[in-house]
Amino acid sequence: MAKPKNPHGDGGDGGSTGKPPQKHGNIDAGKGISSAQQATAQAAQNGRPGGPGGKQPNNPTNPPPNKPTPPPKPTAPPKADDIHHSDASEAHIVGGDGGRQGGHIAGTGLSKKTEFPQSWDGPKILDAAHEVTQQGPPAKGPYLTKDADGKKAWAYDYTGTVDGVTVKTTVLADGEIRTAYPPNSADPGVITNPPAPNPQPKGVPVSDPPRYSHPDIGGDGSWTWEGPKGNKIIRVVQDAQGNVTTTELGDYQKKK
C-alpha cells in the first residue's frame, strides 16, 4: 500500500520532513522553549505598527488630538487705527471677569493686583489704555495668549505714560484690546493690594475671591468674602487685627 503523502505539502515552512513548522516570523520554536518564550514576549512588547495592540507611530508633524491649533503667527502688529476696545475688554480692565482676572479700577481690592489712581474713573482708564497704543510700536510681541473666550490668540504689549502713570496694554493681533493695567506700583496714585490672608478664615464662601479695603483710598485694611455657603449667602470679614466676623445675608437656592 502506498504511503500517504506528506499532509503538510511539499516546500514551504514545513518542507518535506513531515513535522509542523517550527519558525513563525522571528519566533523559532525549534531553538527551545525558553528561546521561543523570550521572542514571544519581545514580539508582544513591540507589537505591530498600526495593528491592534501595537504601538502607533509618532508623527511630530501631527498635533495631538483634540488640541486646538493656534492661529497663524502674524507678520506685523495691527495698525494704530485698527486698535479698539470691545465690551469684553472694557469689563475686564475696569471691574474684572467675575473677580478672577482683570479689575484695575481703584477699590476693586483683588489680591496682589495694581489699581489705577482713585481719581481715574472707568472712561479715563479706558482712554489711557488706548492712548498708549498710539504712542509708538509695541514693546513686546507677537506672543501667544488667550482671548476673552479662552482661545489661543497672538498679542502685542504696548507700554506708555499717561499723566505720570505707566500703562501697559495688551492688544490682540486683530486690534482688539485685551487688557490694561498700571505695572509700576511706585507711580503716583497707583494702588497695590497685598496678598489675601493665607490661611483664610474657616467657613468662607469660595465662589468669589476676597476683596481688600485699602487704607490708601479710605479703607480699613479688612478683607471680605461674600457668597453662597450651603443654603445661605454669607459675608465673612477679617479685620486688620485678624478678628473674624460672619454675617448671614439671606437664603441661597442652588440653580438646578
From TrEMBL:
Q: Where is the composition biased (Low complexity)?
A: 36-47
Compositionally biased intervals (Basic and acidic residues): 79-90
Q: Which InterPro entries match?
A: EndoU_bac
Question: What molecular functions are annotated in GO for this chain?
Answer: endonuclease activity
Extract the coiled-coil ranges from the record: none
Q: Sorted alphabetically, which Pfam families does this protein's record hold?
A: EndoU_bacteria
Here the segments flagged for biased composition (Pro residues) are 60-77
Question: Which residues belong to any copy of the Bacterial EndoU nuclease domain?
Answer: 106-182
- Compositional bias of type Gly residues: which residue ranges? 95-106
What ranges does the record give for the region Disordered, renumbered to this chain?
A: 1-121, 178-228
Q: What name does the UniProt record give this protein?
A: EndoU nuclease
